[in-house]
Fold this protein.
Amino acid sequence: MRHEAHFRFRSADAGHLFRAVAPEMEAESTPRSRAACLLEAPDTLVLNVQAADIAALRAALNMWLRLISVAQEMQELLNNQETIP
């Protein structure tokens, strides 16, 4: 694969985010791109994306960054619900 992108997300909810996107990693099947997501530390989620061409990299990044963003938004909603009496 010729093109790569690496992201590190620091969050107290990194473990929850990892568990939210992990099923998508198992179901991923794209011949032009490959992604790996791992929990580097209790507060650090790492996303590595490789692609054969720039268009495939853009498409894969759109998908994975959106998934992580939605997972973060849902976690924030859950965190806010827990603080409401």
User: Anything to note?
Assistant: The CA atoms of residues 51 and 58 lie 9 Å apart. The chain has one domain: 3-83. The first helix runs from residue 14 to 27.
